[in-house]
Design brief:
Elements: E1 12-15, H1 57-70, E2 75-80, H2 90-104, E3 108-115, H3 122-131, E4 134-138, H4 143-147, H5 159-171, E5 176-182, H6 190-200, E6 205-210, E7 214-217, E8 231-233, E9 252-253, H7 260-277, E10 283-284, H8 285-295, E11 311-314, E12 319-321, E13 332-335, H9 341-345, H10 348-359, H11 363-366, H12 371-374, E14 384-385, E15 391-393, H13 397-419, H14 427-430
Parallel strand pairs: 1-2, 1-11, 2-3, 3-4, 4-5, 5-6, 6-10
Antiparallel strand pairs: 7-8, 7-9, 11-12, 12-13, 14-15
């Protein structure tokens, strides 16, 4: 294999300009426990100079330059994430665009930013429109669904502020999509949930993310990651395995988590509505990924891909981690101030992380008829044992099996239509 081979595919870095800082305190947020990353004014790994836990201008320039030079694909996509990335002022992102224009030298460059929307202003919207940025808005459904867990730092509800932000984006003709978590508060109302996005928000692109978090009690609530919560996340073990601990004293599921059967019924119910009315009009990430699996194409969501590790995280201080869900010391790959992005991202440690998703699959998964669409889902959720007692089964497996069995006839039909050169929406007339 040529040493240039890895660079023929796109590489994605999720940049966290404000680190884990956020103006909300969502009860299920796994990232709030990363506040230790901003506790000191200077980071030893970065060489210092990172006042207040925000990405410096010097690091921003280095990142933009190196990221553009690394890409060997026609379009360079920058992804800004958090925490809440809009805690950095608009001037920061205007400077990022200037660096992109300078180092891009005419290349096609795109940007997307994931935000809770509460800090959007008309000035922000004008910038997002003029520069053609894609905005991902985090919203969990109706007001009752959303405000169950998505509160601000004062414990106040945020749904109306997010709705106002979406209206502003629409008024300024900014391209946007919705990112919704599926949790204990909304998993039991799938049709109401889906119709809210389709009929009230007229949302064309909907991303679904199931919430499953393992926690253990903490004797000191002030050390909890959720603003004084009485529990903390279970940290994946080292030295280098993406498998969370199988069992542990006091370890259990957080109360906001979804159960496998709930997840399966949720997907099946929404799919039935979508496949009758909305194919080709409303795009749901899980359904798109399932169809990709049926087609033998790598899906756009890492959790359903055969291998993971193609989208790393860069914290505000330049530290690179294997994955957004694995920002723990044992998964730190390096720092762009000391090493180049190619050496970090295509190094031995990240390569092993990517391969291990496939290599660690238990026999039950390898023999499963739905492997093509699932690939064991996200490694962080592989904390169950199979029927044979083998470790590494995904917690949501039963729900996915329910869903794949249910959608199989429709997926077979859409695959055949696409292979014949016809659009997939013909499925709406066939069943």
């Amino acid at each position: 294999m040529s040493t240039a081979y890895p660079f023929a595919r796109p590489l994605y870095v999720m940049a966290k300009a404000a680190g884990p800082r956020c103006n909300l305190r969502c009860k299920y947020c796994y990232y709030l426990e990363k506040q230790h990353l901003v506790n000191s004014k200077k980071s030893p790994s970065s060489g210092g100079g990172l006042e207040g836990g925000y990405m410096s201008d010097e690091l921003l320039e280095a990142y933009v330059r190196d990221y553009i030079q690394l890409q060997q694909v026609p379009e360079v996509l920058f992804t800004w994430h958090g925490g809440e990335p809009m805690l950095r002022p608009l001037s920061f992102y205007k400077q990022a665009v200037r660096y992109q224009q300078y180092y891009g030298r005419g290349r096609q460059i795109s940007n997307c930013i994931q935000t809770n929307g509460t800090l959007l202003t008309s000035e922000w919207c004008q910038f997002l429109h003029d520069e053609g940025w894609l905005v991902g808005i985090s919203i969990d459904g109706t007001q009752q669904m959303h405000d169950a867990y998505r509160l601000d730092a004062k414990g106040e509800e945020t749904w109306q502020r997010v709705m106002n932000a979406i209206q502003m984006l629409q008024d300024y003709h900014v391209e946007w999509n919705a990112m919704a978590t599926v949790n204990h508060a909304n998993v039991g109302q799938p049709l109401e949930f889906y119709k809210f996005f389709r009929d009230e928000l007229h949302c064309q692109f909907l991303q679904l993310s199931p919430i499953v978090e393992r926690v253990r009690p903490t004797p000191d609530p002030s050390r909890g990651g959720r603003g004084g919560a009485e529990y903390s996340l279970v940290v994946p073990p080292g030295p280098f395995s993406p498998l969370p601990p199988r069992e542990g004293s006091g370890v259990g599921l957080a109360p906001f988590s979804v159960k496998p059967d709930e997840w399966g019924r949720f997907l099946c119910t929404i799919f039935d509505e979508w496949v009758k009315h909305d194919v080709g009009e409303t795009f749901v990430n899980v359904f798109d990924a399932t169809l990709a699996g049926w087609m033998g194409v790598t899906p756009g969501i890492c959790v359903y891909a055969e291998e993971c590790g193609h989208a790393v995280v860069m914290e505000h201080n330049g530290d690179i981690y294997s994955c957004d869900h694995f920002v723990f010391p044992q998964y730190r790959l390096g720092n762009i101030r000391q090493q180049g992005l190619p050496q970090i991202i295509y190094g031995e440690k990240q390569t092993a992380f990517s391969r291990l998703k496939k290599e660690s699959l238990p026999r039950q998964c390898r023999q499963c008829e739905w492997l093509k669409a699932c690939h064991g889902e996200c490694p962080r959720l592989r904390f169950l044992h199979t029927a044979d007692g083998e470790p590494g089964l995904n917690y949501l497996c039963a729900g996915y099996r329910m869903y794949f069995q249910h959608v199989a006839p429709y997926m077979d039909f859409m695959r055949n239509e696409l292979l014949a050169g016809r659009p997939a929406y013909g499925v709406m007339r066939a069943f």
